[in-house]
Amino acid sequence: MARLEDLTRGAQVKGVRTDGPVSEAYRIRLAYLFDPLLAVHTSLVEPLPHQILAVYGEMLPRQPLRFLLADDPGAGKTIMAGLFIKELLARGDLKRALIICPGSLTEQWQDELNDKFQLPFEILTNDKLESARTGNWFDENDLVVARLDKLSRNEDVQAKLEASRDWDLVVVDEAHKMSASFFGGEVKETKRYKLGKLAGRIARHFLLMTATPHNGKEEDFQLFMALLDADRFEGKFRDGVHVIDPTDMMRRLAKKSGVAAGARCPGSKATTWRIRRALGAAFGSAARSGTPCQSLPGSAATVRMG
Asked: Which of 3, 137, 171, 198 allows an S-S link to 132, with CB 3.0 to 4.6 Å?
């Protein structure tokens, strides 16, 4: 892959000259190679350290992503999701994204993504479904916010969702509502849980977000995690036989750690700056050589804060 310096010196890349709008578009498309925090610098947000580490240290390195973000309330999970979506868009790894959330949060999601990340998501409504030119509104829109119960209770809408083009990313907010349980030796799946299974089938990246992923029953938690990996969490949990270790598929950050408390956390801006500098140093040499950032180790544990 050509380096940015090559383009600015007038080199021809794949027959494209550097003195026109096409080459400018090519440079913009490669921008993420030279700015490892491109979504941060092109959004109207000032993310906190734990948000940067979640997106750039935990989520982006996973390809494809099957992940549970279980930080406490107030940690800014919407901000993390917005950064993740915008970063994937900048890297050319995302075109279609679906947000599934409770009805009371749909407008909040739409406003946050539009105001802070300039992402024009459309809210699914009955009128839009009925007026679709092609008969399937999902095929006509690439950035969608949908109500959880609107999808889970309407089989016709689910059929259209499944028949539409696959989604690059599906995000489920308040994902604990997609519950299932064992009763009488059988799995009792709610309509919301069945929707979760459908969402996992049609998405390449699948992100579940909830502050309460565990209701105290290991067997129910195993069913919940099966939405992300059905093979790994198959069967009923039996104490002493099954060992659940989902730490490689989830992140849990409690407020008591002092990090997720938000801007009130002392020194958060300085810490954010140090994380940016550390990530920039980690990706800098590869960016100058034209190596894609996502091919580098991205674990938060590898970022030194010195």
From this structure: 137
